[in-house]
Every structure is written in structure tokens, then in C-alpha cells.
Design brief:
- This protein has 2 domains: about 45 residues; about 200 residues, Rossmann fold, CATH 3.40.50.
- It is about 50% helix and about 5% strand.
């Protein structure tokens, strides 16, 4: 939202300076510093927070719609197969951004039980000191708190499912403790593997075939995509964290269609 505000303020500032120059019959470059400062103040006060929020909401919603239009092949069918083969499984999403499958109502929402986001839950868990920029992180356990939170949410959802099942079937004997096993699937060695491994998760690294157009490997190789905002320092630390996590990979897949079989093998 800060980026949106900046862009809007810059646009309004240019419009105000152009209008002022035209009114005074002079060039924009000839406007004095006090005039420019007044125009900057005008731009800041003109952009209301509600407008910034509205623009952000529109962007976020279209981002999720775009994600639905461009889902990887086998994404939906693989999740459905896992749910069929493992009744009672809890499917959750862990993200360091605002991506949320629960907002993808035409595709993923029916398949997910919960989502955990650094942005959504940072105040809730009151661990602001652990929510650091990547440039300041050199150990995976420092980002592990978000995965511990995900485990807590998953267990809570599992207990709720168990209560519903028991209440709907008075003859159910499903009261015995069941071992909790978490399989974490992701394409980032540093976070998905290194971070989740700190909580004892079985890890599946997604290194998709070239036709998928995956960019995670480019970042690990030091070649950031053109759209990335990662600095050189952040990229270097990201690579270091990835190398530290390379021995924590329990399984690797090159297509999402392989995921159900891999999960079954990990659960044996």
C-alpha cells in the first residue's frame, strides 16, 4: 500500500506542478523550491487512505483471479487425490505475502482448510522481532515461527473435524490419539524446507520441469526474475539459507502429479 500511495502522490505531484507552471506561464523546471514543497504537501494530503485501500483491494482481488487462471497443471487433481487417499487430511497454505487460496473461490478455496500469512498473523502471534527482512536472516530457525503457527492451526482444524465426526456418529470409536504428521510442500529451499524442518515436518521440494516456467530455481542460482524486488544482499542471504537447508529435503518432485504418490511414501 505504501508503493500504491507513492505512485499516486507522484502522479498528483506532476499534475499539480504542470498546472502551476501553465498558470504562471513558465516551465516546470523553473518553479522554485517553496512551490515544489507546497505541491508535494498538496499531493500527500490529497491521497486519502481509503482510496489507497480501495486500489490495493482491487489489485489483490485481480491477483487471485489471475492465479486461478494460471494454476499449474495437476494442482487441483493432485490435492483432490490426496484428500481421497487420506481421509481427514488437513490442507493449509503458508505464505510470506498476501496470497490466500481461501480467496480463490472458483478453484482452490473448497480444497483448503486454512491459510497462514506473515502479514495476517504477525500481530496475532506478537513476534514482530522475528519478522525480519531477509537481509537480516541467516538461519532458517529464525523464520520457523510461522511454520509453528501453521502446525497449531492445522491441529486445531483436525480436532474440530474430529469433534464434528464424533458428534455426528455416536457409535464412533475415533477417540484414540492419532500421530500428527505434517508434510510441507514448497519450492523455496530456504523457507519451505529450512523453515518447516525446524518443526519436524517432512519436506517436499518442488523443482518443476522447465515447461512449468518456475522461477524459484532462478533465485537459488542467483538469477532473480525481472519482477523481483530482492536486493543483492537479500539474494546472497537467500542462497546461503538455501544451501544450509539442502540436506533437509525428504523428497523432490518435478510435476505436481507426483505429489500424491510421494506423500503416501513419506507416510509409510
Amino acid at each position: 500500500m505504501a508503493a500504491i500511495r507513492r505512485e499516486m502522490e507522484q502522479f498528483i505531484l506532476k499534475m499539480k506542478l504542470r498546472q502551476t507552471a501553465e498558470d504562471w506561464a513558465t516551465d516546470i523546471d523553473d518553479l522554485t523550491a517553496p512551490v515544489r514543497k507546497s505541491a508535494e504537501k498538496w499531493a500527500r494530503t490529497t491521497v486519502h487512505s481509503s482510496v489507497v485501500q480501495a486500489v490495493y483491494n482491487a489489485w489483490e482481488m485481480e491477483r487471485h483471479h489471475a492465479a486461478e487462471r494460471h494454476l499449474f497443471p495437476d494442482a487441483i487433481s493432485s490435492i483432490k487425490q490426496i484428500q481421497t487417499e487420506h481421509p481427514g487430511v488437513i490442507v493449509g497454505a503458508v505464505t510470506d505475502g498476501s496470497a490466500n487460496p481461501m480467496l480463490m473461490v472458483f478453484s482452490l478455496m473448497p480444497l483448503f482448510d486454512f491459510t497462514t500469512s506473515w502479514e495476517d498473523d504477525i500481530e496475532q502471534v506478537q513476534q514482530l522481532d522475528k519478522f525480519q527482512e531477509l537481509s537480516a536472516v541467516d538461519k532458517s530457525d529464525q523464520v520457523g515461527w510461522i511454520y509453528r503457527l501453521a502446525v497449531e492451526k492445522g491441529k486445531e482444524m483436525s480436532m474440530l473435524n474430529k469433534e464434528v465426526k464424533n458428534n455426528s456418529n455416536s457409535d464412533s470409536n475415533d477417540d484414540e490419539d492419532v500421530e500428527w504428521i505434517w508434510v510441507h510442500v514448497g519450492d523455496d529451499l530456504a523457507y519451505d524446507v529450512g523453515g518447516s524442518a525446524t518443526t519436524g515436518a517432512k519436506t517436499v521440494l518442488v523443482e518443476l520441469a522447465d515447461e512449468y516456467g518456475q522461477t524459484a530455481r532462478l533465485r537459488m542460482e542467483g538469477n532473480c526474475p525481472s519482477w523481483s524486488t530482492e536486493s543483492e544482499e537479500q539474494m546472497a542471504n537467500h542462497q546461503k539459507m538455501s544451501m544450509n537447508a539442502s540436506d533437509k529435503v525428504d523428497a523432490k518432485i518435478s510435476t505436481l502429479g507426483q505429489l500424491p504418490e510421494v506423500i503416501s511414501e513419506l507416510l509409510k
